[in-house]
């Protein structure tokens, strides 16, 4: 899906949301598998220490966190009053009320590879672990790539039956209007204890809780059975009625959250345009796979003529609950991307805006955290001119291929597009709107690959001069040669 060979732009809804929810790890992160990344970060050279937030870490040869990322860790948009990410978080939280749900916002983003991957059952060769996709502090320490990294410890802490956690997450990724190397996720879970419910009857207790949830009138397509032996298996140790009851509670709870978001989006649209007319809201449940849930689903919303994936979810693997020391509990978990939801809710057209300090952006949300009913749609302030520059180059012979002769995994030193993105991002920062592969071919005799990328230099806040764009571009060309050993054409 996001491979270099036959790369497609982020054209499908699935692509867009894959990145936000991180579902990309399951389906679209193929090309980077086992790549030995040639790219060296701009952070100070290993060995030595690095300061992230108020903590200091030992670096090693895995270190690849650029300064721009390291210095953004303190921003905490998800808890900044009147920031659209924080407002969106509050709306989601409102549908998971106390005392059943406790809300966490303060987990530090530096976690172990055990927390981020192993504890959740990610296989050792999972592409999400690659240095090309993930920011490593050292071999066993990463910037979390998803909020699920904290599931185990929250289950262990046993502070409530359910919880939500909102937090910043980090991924090396493409550059375009819907991708940013830091984004925000919200995770939620709800457990029931066999030893606490009447007669140990989990299914009955969960169904009673389902009855207590409000009803809604949204159109929901859910054609598949709660479990399926091959596609979405029931866990050993779970009765079919238990999985069915938990699935229903999960789905109804998340549907209510979607109804809330979209009724607020509609009210905001009507506040600016009283003649606003919308289509009835429609969602569908799609079978999915996550290493730490079974059965699992994604929720998709029909929005502007396409299905958008908004979250991943499922019945928590009993093994995870055993590891957490709560083997008698069962329940569900979900994770969603807050930027995706906020972009729909406020009609924010470019993900870089969330990082803007421009009062023309921030002032549009003043007072909303205190009174969510004053939420309005974002009104774009200006569109500054685009400045396109191309860079074409030959890849060095060693990295010209991305698949082995057997058609399997990439050999060491294979090319990875995320390394280019990282170079452009470190030089142009938020002055780059988009980077696209526009041409690619393999020389019939030498077998070398040539690539051409088009970079759109455009600030959200002012007009960039051609000279400024040229200066960025010259540096990008220089770094491509220095760090990726390409030959410019
Ligand atoms: N962590 C997943 C991601 O980033 C999202 C997710 C899926 C979270 C399923 C969950 C879950 O808790 O049960 O793609």
From TrEMBL:
The keyword Ligase applies. It comes from the Eukaryota. Pfam families: FDX-ACB, tRNA-synt_2d. One of its GO terms (cellular component) is mitochondrial matrix. Keywords: Aminoacyl-tRNA synthetase, ATP-binding, Ligase, Mitochondrion, Nucleotide-binding, Protein biosynthesis, Transit peptide. It is found in: Mitochondrion matrix. InterPro entries: aa-tRNA-synth_II, aa-tRNA-synth_II/BPL/LPL, Fdx_antiC-bd, Fdx_antiC-bd_sf, Phe-tRNA-synth_IIc_mito, Phenylalanyl-tRNA_Synthase. GO terms for molecular function: ATP binding; phenylalanine-tRNA ligase activity; tRNA binding. Its EC number is 6.1.1.20. It catalyses: tRNA(Phe) + L-phenylalanine + ATP = L-phenylalanyl-tRNA(Phe) + AMP + diphosphate + H(+). It is an enzyme of class 6 (ligase). GO terms for biological process: phenylalanyl-tRNA aminoacylation. Residues 167-380 form the Aminoacyl-transfer RNA synthetases class-II family profile domain. Belongs to the class-II aminoacyl-tRNA synthetase family. This is Phenylalanine--tRNA ligase, mitochondrial. It comes from Amylocarpus encephaloides.
């Amino acid at each position: 899906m996001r491979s270099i060979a036959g790369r497609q732009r982020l054209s499908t809804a699935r692509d867009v949301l894959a990145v936000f929810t991180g579902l990309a790890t399951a389906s679209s992160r193929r090309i980077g598998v086992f790549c030995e990344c040639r790219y060296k970060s701009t952070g100070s050279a290993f060995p030595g220490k690095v300061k992230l937030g108020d903590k200091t870490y030992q670096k090693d040869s895995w270190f690849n966190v650029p300064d721009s990322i390291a210095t953004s860790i303190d921003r905490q948009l998800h808890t900044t009053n009147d920031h659209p990410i924080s407002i969106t978080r509050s709306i989601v939280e409102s549908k998971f009320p106390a005392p059943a749900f406790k809300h966490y916002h303060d987990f530090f983003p530096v976690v172990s590879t055990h927390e981020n991957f192993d504890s959740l059952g990610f296989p050792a060769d999972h592409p999400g672990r690659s240095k090309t996709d993930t920011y490593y502090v050292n071999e066993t320490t990463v910037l979390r790539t998803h909020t699920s990294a904290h599931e185990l410890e929250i289950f262990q802490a046993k502070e409530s039956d359910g919880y939500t956690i909102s937090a910043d997450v980090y991924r090396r990724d493409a550059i375009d209007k819907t991708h940013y190397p830091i984004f925000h996720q919200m995770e939620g879970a709800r457990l029931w204890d066999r030893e606490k419910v009447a007669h140990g009857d989990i299914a009955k207790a969960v169904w009673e809780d389902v009855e207590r949830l409000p009803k809604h009138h949204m159109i929901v397509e859910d054609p598949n059975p709660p479990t399926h032996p091959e596609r979405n298996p029931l866990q050993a140790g779970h009765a079919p009625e238990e999985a069915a009851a938990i699935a229903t509670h999960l789905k109804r709870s998340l549907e209510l959250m979607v109804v809330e978001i979209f009724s607020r989006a509609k009210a905001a649209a009507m506040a600016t345009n009283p003649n606003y007319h919308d289509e009835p809201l429609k969602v569908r449940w799609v079978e999915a796979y996550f290493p730490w849930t079974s059965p699992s689903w994604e929720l998709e919303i029909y929005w502007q003529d396409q299905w958008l994936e908004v979250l991943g979810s499922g019945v928590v693997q009993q093994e995870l609950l055993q590891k957490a020391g709560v083997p008698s509990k069962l329940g569900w978990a979900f994770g969603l991307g807050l930027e995706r939801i906020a972009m729909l809710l406020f009609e924010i057209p470019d993900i870089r805006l969330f990082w803007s300090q421009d009062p023309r952006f921030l002032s549009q949300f003043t007072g909303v955290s205190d009174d969510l009913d004053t939420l309005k749609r974002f009104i774009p302030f200006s569109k500054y001119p685009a400045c396109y520059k191309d860079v074409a180059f030959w890849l060095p012979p060693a990295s010209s291929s991305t698949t082995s002769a057997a058609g399997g995994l990439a050999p060491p030193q294979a090319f990875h597009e995320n390394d280019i993105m990282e170079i452009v991002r470190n030089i142009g920062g938020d002055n780059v709107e988009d980077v696209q592969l526009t041409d690619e071919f393999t020389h019939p005799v030498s077998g070398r690959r040539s690539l051409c990328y088009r970079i759109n230099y455009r600030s959200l806040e002012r007009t960039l001069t051609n000279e400024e764009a040229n200066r960025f571009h010259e540096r990008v060309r220089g770094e491509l040669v220095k760090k990726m050993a390409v030959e410019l054409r």
